[in-house]
Protein 1
Amino acid sequence: MVGAHTLMMAVALAALVHGHPLHTTFTEVVEVPGGATVTVRAFTDDLARAVHGGAALDDSAVAVYVRSRLLLTDQSGRPLPLAFTGQRQTADLTWLAFTAHPAGGLAGLHIANRLQTALYPDQVNLVQARYSSRSETLLFSASDGARTLP
């Protein structure tokens, strides 16, 4: 959905120009043959603080943190493991890559995104899912529980 990308770009630009006043992440969940790719984009300083008090973002600590705060559950209620496939950083942003294997595809998948909400009460997490010629955008704040993709 163009709106979610536009919003994330506006948030990133505002943060760079104004000293990073907003706390947000953007996650894309994309259905691919045999599973799904999951990409999390976050401000590096916020993510490092959430993972372990601001120290460098090592792969193991990042993977453990994201798996504990970004929860995917299939239609039958089974949690889906997120396999960490890497990270990269550019300027103040970090991209984290994972794969998942929902047996029935993304339709009906339950998603809960609590990334950084324990650290920032104003945290906003966007999740965009692309599957079966659809694009769905979900918005999560600190008080939100799981949502289901139609």
Protein 2
Amino acid sequence: MTQGDDNNYYLELGYIYFSRRSVTVRAVVGSCVTVCIWDEKNKMGGMNHFVMPWVDKPDNATPHYGNVATAALVRIMEEAGSKREDLCAQIIGGGKPEGAVSENIGRENIRVASEVLERKGITIVSQDIGGHIGRKVAFNSGTGEVAVLKTHKIRQTDWKKGD
């Protein structure tokens, strides 16, 4: 779900956001991953936010899964007129902050994002991944710029509507 005003959206877990105009898309990640994809030629972009790497059954294919969310974001951008050679990606998250459920889930989330992007021929221009802290992410869909704030403790209230 996205929340916010016309120029500022909070992207919750299991969702994808795309815009043809400049919008700041925000998310908070621990072991989850966000993939930000920007079309340099058309100055538009999108971001996903997923928690699990691979979908186990086709009937469960939702953006909660990295392989689904990343392929879907590429498809959305292509349907909007992007060409893969004009796209670049940034991967953020995949850490193991305090209280993470699994030792390997963050690493697997990073791996699936990288593999899908490589298979689709999308260049990864930057990564802020791994480690033992959470991240607050702000992606500008019009410029492709990403700001990452690192935090030792992720709170339920971080960057929700009204912040």
Protein 3
Amino acid sequence: MDEREIVLLKSDLLESYEVVELIYKRILGEQATFRDKIQHLNSMAYRLHSLYGAYERLFEIVANFFENQIESTRYRADLLRRMKTEIAGMRPALISSSVHEMLNELRRFRHFFRYAYGVELDADRVERLVQIAIQLKKPFQQDMEHFLEQLK
């Protein structure tokens, strides 16, 4: 890997991470009131869906850069799993196992939200996922910083 390619990868990841940060601002801004009305609950569920999508974009950047092509019917689960795996001689793991578990909860909700037409959202479940998302923020930042430091 050439140093310029690594600089570009880091730049792409940091730019995409800005979207994650923006979504977190919106989640935190709506956290206190999302149970007030069904529209607010739906909005928060959409934020959680979007948050996982923004994280997934980071994973795709890493997978594409290192040519870790993932072709499967379980693409999203496999992509996430791949990010906790170090590929010897190629790249370090992006995320820890604990971060993987929290992201996997959000991934499953994203799938539910995307395909659950006509289903009423459970406010308690959404609230639990908001808490997971908030708990995820700092450890993911630490994992990503560690990943970026290890790139040479």
